[in-house]
């Protein structure tokens, strides 16, 4: 980003007051050494850039800051070879998470949060030490926010929360760390949401503690487990995550865990989708989709694998039961490997799926397609394909259509944007599908005479 020093650009007092009033970092950032901000936000201190009074080290700016201040770090002096300790209630903001780099140079923690109510945003945090007292980012405080960072290539764990509570870890890429991606150690009431956690040497997430929420993360290709419950994990919520392709072990491995809820996760291409031990009990699993794991589940303890009727249980790609009543729930239970547990109400389709219908209405010159969502879930990224076989045609033989999402019960009509002309016996396949709907195909046979189509039943 291009920098414009405050002095030398002759910015007027009115512009300064505008920035003060809004409390926003402008899209074209000023290289200001220290700039007074609204009282509620404190002062702004700048690191890097070319403004007069700007700091050259992040730690120096933190040391001079007070509670409520913001330290903004430009990327033009990156990488910053530092091991940072944040012991004040401040915001630490990087200009761009791809290019504002804090490099621990192979020693200790790269960033250590020791005060409550710290926010860190917009950094690439790399190259911690390995072993004890090492890692990309350690949190030993409460009510912190770690958002929009890249935390990668550290010698140990990427993010380590020790006894911390009410911290939010959101929208980060946590990759290629030599320990776990994230470790919660006796930590409670934390939220991990919308992170990409991949290719870490240990687990994607390793946790002990209570009342944590792990929601909408992509957890893939970690060396051992996607999520590991390693000690006294209770009343945690694991929901809407994609957990796939762990290299050695399992999607979710529960060594010690009670009263946890696992809801609406996609778990596929792991050794075991989920594995439990005798130290687990009273966990609840429902509305999860299990695809193509070497073993879908092994449960040797007493856990619940459905949510009753009509809510249903889980989807199992190897379930071969029937659904005579056509209520979307299998007529026979799915047996859980390892013990006597069953999913009494296995789902016939992956949870979150819906059903589409399509109808082609031939006309003169033009054809009309009607697509309807007959399910109970919004259809995402709806697409259609009409193929024409046989005859002699003076038009294309494949017509692809992409429509907007369809709400439950919604129907749309599309006039195909081509001119039908030709003659002969024609076979039409008219198909529709969506990201969360299986393909539905209508077949129509008939005769095309120039631009008239005669439907043959």
Tell me what you see in this structure.
With 457 residues, this protein is mainly beta. It folds into two domains: 79-87 and 94-343, Single-stranded right-handed beta-helix, Pectin lyase-like (Pectate Lyase C-like), CATH 2.160.20.10; 356-456, Immunoglobulins (Immunoglobulin-like). It is 4% helix and 44% strand. It has a 24-stranded mixed β-sheet that branches. An eleven-stranded parallel β-sheet has the order 6-9-12-15-18-21-24-27-31-34-37, with no helix packed on it. A hairpin with a 4-residue loop joins strand 40 (356-362) and strand 41 (367-373). Residues 1-40 have low confidence and may be disordered.
Salient structural properties:
457 residues, mainly beta, Pectate Lyase C-like, Immunoglobulin-like, 24-stranded mixed sheet, 11-stranded parallel sheet, globular
In short:
This protein is mainly beta.
Question: What is the third-level CATH name, the topology of the largest domain?
Answer: Pectate Lyase C-like
Instruction: Please identify the structural class as seen in this structure.
Output: mainly beta
The figure for the number of domains is 2
Largest sheet: 24 strands, mixed
Gap between N and C termini, in Å?
A: 65 Å
Quick one: CATH class of the largest domain? Mainly Beta
Name of the CATH homologous superfamily of the largest domain = Single-stranded right-handed beta-helix, Pectin lyase-like
Percentage of residues in helical conformation: under 10%
- What overall form do the CA principal axes indicate? globular
Strand elements, count = 48
Whole-number radius of gyration? 28 Å
Mean pLDDT: 85
Fraction of residues in β-strands: 35-45%
The number of helical segments is 2
> In the CATH hierarchy, what is the architecture of the largest domain at level 2?
3 Solenoid
């Amino acid at each position: 980003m291009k920098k414009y020093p405050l002095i030398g650009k002759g910015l007027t007092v009115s512009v300064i007051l505008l920035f003060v009033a809004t409390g926003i970092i402008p899209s074209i950032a000023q290289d200001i050494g220290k700039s007074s901000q609204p009282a509620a936000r404190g002062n702004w201190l700048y690191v890097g850039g070319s403004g007069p009074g700007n700091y050259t080290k992040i730690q120096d700016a933190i040391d001079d800051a007070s509670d409520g201040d913001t330290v903004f770090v430009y990327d033009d002096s990156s990488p910053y070879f530092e091991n940072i300790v944040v012991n004040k209630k401040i915001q630490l903001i990087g200009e761009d998470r791809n290019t504002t780099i804090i490099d621990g140079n192979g020693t200790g923690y790269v960033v250590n949060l020791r005060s409550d109510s710290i926010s860190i945003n917009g950094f690439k945090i790399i190259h911690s030490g390995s072993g004890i007292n090492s890692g990309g980012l350690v949190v030993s405080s409460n009510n912190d926010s770690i958002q929009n960072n890249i935390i990668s290539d550290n010698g140990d764990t990427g993010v380590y929360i020790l006894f911390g509570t009410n911290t939010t870890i959101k929208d980060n890429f946590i990759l290629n760390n030599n320990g776990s991606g994230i470790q919660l150690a006796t930590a409670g009431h934390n939220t991990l949401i919308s992170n990409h956690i991949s290719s870490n040497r240990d687990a994607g997430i390793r946790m002990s503690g209570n009342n944590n929420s792990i929601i909408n993360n992509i957890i893939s290709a970690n060396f051992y487990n996607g999520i590991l419950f390693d000690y006294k994990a209770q009343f945690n919520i694991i929901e809407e995550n994609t957990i796939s392709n762990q290299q050695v072990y399992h999607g979710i491995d529960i060594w010690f865990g009670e009263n946890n809820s696992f809801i609406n996760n996609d778990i596929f291409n792991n050794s075991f989708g989920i594995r439990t031990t005798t130290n687990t009990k009273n966990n609840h699993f429902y509305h999860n989709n299990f695809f193509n794991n070497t073993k879908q589940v092994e449960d040797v303890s007493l856990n619940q694998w459905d949510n009753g009727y009509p809510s249903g249980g889980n989807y199992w790609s190897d379930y071969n039961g029937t659904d005579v009543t056509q209520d979307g729930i299998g007529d026979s239970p799915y047996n859980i490997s390892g013990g006597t547990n069953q999913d009494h109400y296995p789902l016939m389709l992956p949870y979150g799926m819906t059903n589409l219908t399509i109808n082609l209405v031939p006309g003169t010159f033009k054809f009309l397609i009607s697509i309807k969502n007959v399910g109970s879930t919004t259809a995402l990224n709806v697409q259609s394909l009409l193929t024409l076989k046989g005859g002699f045609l003076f038009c294309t033989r494949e017509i692809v259509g992409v429509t907007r999402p369809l709400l439950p019960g919604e129907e749309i009509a599309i006039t195909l944007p081509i001119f039908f002309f030709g003659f002969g016996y024609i076979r039409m396949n008219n198909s529709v599908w969506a990201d969360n709907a299986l393909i539905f195909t209508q077949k129509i046979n008939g005769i095309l005479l120039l631009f008239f189509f005669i439907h043959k039943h």
